[in-house]
Amino acid sequence: MAGADRKAEIRKRAAEVFAEQGYDAASIRDVARAAGLSLAGLYYYYQGKDAILFEIQHEAFRTLLEQHAEALAGVKEPQQKLRRVIDAHLAFFAGNIAEMKVMARESEQLTGKFAEKVGEQRRRYVRLVRGILDEIATHHPLRDVPVPVAVFLLFGMMNWLYTWYDPERDGSPERLANAVHRIFLHGLLGGGRAPE
Amino acid sequence: MAGADRKAEIRKRAAEVFAEQGYDAASIRDVARAAGLSLAGLYYYYQGKDAILFEIQHEAFRTLLEQHAEALAGVKEPQQKLRRVIDAHLAFFAGNIAEMKVMARESEQLTGKFAEKVGEQRRRYVRLVRGILDEIATHHPLRDVPVPVAVFLLFGMMNWLYTWYDPERDGSPERLANAVHRIFLHGLLGGGRAPE
Amino acid sequence: MAGADRKAEIRKRAAEVFAEQGYDAASIRDVARAAGLSLAGLYYYYQGKDAILFEIQHEAFRTLLEQHAEALAGVKEPQQKLRRVIDAHLAFFAGNIAEMKVMARESEQLTGKFAEKVGEQRRRYVRLVRGILDEIATHHPLRDVPVPVAVFLLFGMMNWLYTWYDPERDGSPERLANAVHRIFLHGLLGGGRAPE
Amino acid sequence: MAGADRKAEIRKRAAEVFAEQGYDAASIRDVARAAGLSLAGLYYYYQGKDAILFEIQHEAFRTLLEQHAEALAGVKEPQQKLRRVIDAHLAFFAGNIAEMKVMARESEQLTGKFAEKVGEQRRRYVRLVRGILDEIATHHPLRDVPVPVAVFLLFGMMNWLYTWYDPERDGSPERLANAVHRIFLHGLLGGGRAPE
DNA sequence: AATGAATGAGTATTCATTCAT
DNA sequence: GATGAATGAATACTCATTCAT
After folding, report:
1. Each residue of C164-183: pLDDT tens digit?
2. Distance D12 CA to F17 C1' (A)
3. How far is the CA of B2 from the C1' of E19 (A)?
């Protein structure tokens, strides 16, 4: 298990480096240095730069999906579900800022098998949220916004965080989740005329 | 003026290349090829790779700010203003998809003078939107969402487009603008309780 | 044409480097240095190490096949043809010692398209010699040695040169050709019993 | 003695790897894997890559020289001796194809002490064959071919095998030995005029 | 206005080898 | 006997950029 721990630590440091410099601009030397390893030492753990990026994204999605499963356990009401999902998403992002940046910005860097696997997770995650919106939509008409579009607008609000969010200045993830949930849900379901 | 035209065309092609491959991954050779120029020929027009990226972003912001000025001319009502701004933003993005990707994804690549100038435009643009929200907020309380946060959530909905938007599948920019405007405004201002 | 000349010179120097150190052991830096170019400068002319090896082999076979065509022009008698072919082969090898070494020793290094093209030339060359032996065999029985085997034994005598031949010590290519021709032809066709 | 057995097996596997990929291109990792050992485990048996190559060549020459001694025991007639030597050489090569390839192709890779020792064996082996040819030459004039050259032409016929010989297609080593012996001896000693 | 030729600095990756256990 | 973990040095190759023409 020591090996797995070491890999987790390398992943953490690599995510920080990728978050700060960008995946392409970051050199594998920077990653090695940040991990406290020699260049060649790093390759003992990871077969290449893309394998590291893959595992960062794969692990992040794994955790995210896992936490969603927990967050939804026992919840029946669809609006409650949505709230929980937003909470979990933002809590994860706020707690893993480097990983969030990497997920949001470097999602097109993977290729081949790596891209396939992460793409699959991503689609699964999107379907999960879409499912909840579909449930909500059966109770309340969505007023001119197709569900698939609504899903991506929601993700937009949340994922764009990586460009601006500063916990000190912008409040806790919970408050943020509150704002996102309120805007999104009232926005989608609210009264027909613009409020005055 | 022929030179300016040529530069504009190079910028267009460069934006396409940067959009497809990413700024870092794209080589200046790719740009030259796409522009139908030799490598050295390209340097006659642009002093370097970053100068091209700079002008893509700078021109895009210039156009965006210009169009906002037009869009807001004579409009008094703050909610109307917001609608116009969202319209203009999405119309520009939908009409300049490559540039949009580059703006959204490569905003941290510039440094020095280039970064300063574009940063200034960006802040000016943000301030413009924030001003409108402030106006709105003086008429209606914003229910738990600080204006600065609201601004970035709005930009999130719009800028995240580059990861998913397909005009064929997701409808015209106008419809999209409608959805964004509706969600955002009703969301911010809508009734105190979750709608049922 | 200047570019072609430059490439020819690079090829020559590269052949010397590959001959001395072996293709694998030679670094592309060594080749660049020998060619009087910077590392990157070399890549302006050749797309990679294997492209250089390919052109060395390809050009050598081209010349070899060309010279054989000349050498055989107007010759009718098969034994005469064989003599001419051996002469041409050894003359080429003695005059291009570095290329010879590279041809003999590095024939399995190429892959893909490169391997195909050179392999085709090689087979064409072998067929040419085999054709001559077939002609000879129709006049004289070959005494227990199948033509294909005979061909490779002949090539063995000639190609192994790269491991030992020193013009100063071992005589001119013509004398060598004489020896090879004599041994091979008398050996193949000579009397039934071992001479005493 | 178990250690010696293990070393012999490693040598065998290493010879196969070197034969297939070439000494330079083969990595010591490949050798370890082929030998069923970890990388570090291999170093318990051999002090380095070159030590393995050395022992492959050294053992091969040792066996070759030993078998020649046996083959020549009690033989008086020089032409008989030559036949025995060719037989033994080809039998060994056909029975140790990987080693043969390595001997023929990688003879210049060793350096220092290793190169000296194997070089000494090689020279001893060459002298042995040269001695036999000298004996033959005292009975029969060699017609224009100096003995040293003749020796290398003979080795050429035999050592080039590694590039083409396929037992299925080209017949048994004995038949091959017959062909080589016949060509070489009749070629060297046969009648003054070209046979018609 | 445009280019062919060239380069210094940098990239990801691989290799033979070592050493504590 | 054997190995997991680690490394310094090297490799092929690419890049943004320049300059004489």
Report:
1. 999 999 999 999 999 999 99
2. 52
3. 68
